[in-house]
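Hi R.,

As promised on Friday, here is the backbone we talked about, encoded as structure tokens. Could you run it through your design pipeline when you get a chance and send me back a sequence?
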């Protein structure tokens, strides 16, 4: 049983994906992750992207804690249906449409999203069997959709190597929790400057 830990919807019991085809982030890892994000002060009014969303637990937790727009991206039938259930539940509690579900492959979604879309927080939790080459097809298009001070959180097996970060993205930290490693990345300096230039041009 998974619950929202804190925020406006704190304590809410979430729907779980039927069967055992997904690997939910453990409560221990989720609590440590959101404690860290809260310390960054990045969740309030954030735009959040949850790729390979599973039940959508990380995305709806973000909404509960103050994110204003959350995109859950999931391709598989049962997880996508569960995402919709949890999105509807949290949107109702928050009395606003904050969480939206997209049934699509992560890389396809990123290639189709408008060029000016930027996210402040991105969760990526692909299957552990996902190869480094497959992961690159997600990270590469994502790099161009990060806000200036964005944080990317990638969950991988502790036995997996460090991801190959694409141009425009760089690691700034990592945390190991048993069989799980969280990699934290951010836009590189050059990419951040480019984002600022684009924002200024759009306002001109």
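Update: got your reply. Pasting your designed sequence below so it's all in one thread:
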């Amino acid at each position: 049983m998974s619950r929202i830990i804190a925020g406006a919807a704190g304590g809410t019991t979430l729907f779980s994906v039927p069967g055992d085809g997904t690997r939910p982030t453990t409560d221990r890892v989720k609590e440590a992750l959101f404690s860290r994000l809260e310390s960054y002060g990045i969740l309030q009014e954030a735009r959040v992207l949850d790729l390979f969303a599973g039940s959508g637990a990380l995305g709806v937790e973000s909404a509960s804690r103050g994110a204003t727009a959350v995109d859950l991206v999931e391709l598989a039938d049962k997880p996508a249906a569960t995402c919709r259930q949890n999105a509807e539940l949290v949107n109702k509690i928050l009395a606003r449409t904050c969480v939206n579900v997209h049934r699509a492959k992560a890389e396809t979604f990123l290639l189709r999203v408008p060029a000016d879309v930027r996210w402040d927080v991105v969760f990526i939790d692909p299957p552990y069997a996902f190869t480094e080459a497959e992961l690159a097809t997600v990270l590469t298009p994502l790099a161009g959709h990060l806000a200036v001070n964005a944080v990317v959180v990638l969950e991988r097996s502790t036995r997996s190597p460090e991801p190959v970060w694409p141009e425009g993205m760089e690691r700034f930290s990592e945390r190991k929790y048993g069989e799980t490693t969280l990699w934290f990345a951010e836009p590189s300096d050059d990419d951040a400057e480019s984002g600022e230039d684009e924002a200024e041009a759009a306002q001109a």
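One thing I noticed while checking it: Confidence is low (pLDDT under 50) at residues 191-204.

Thanks again,
M.
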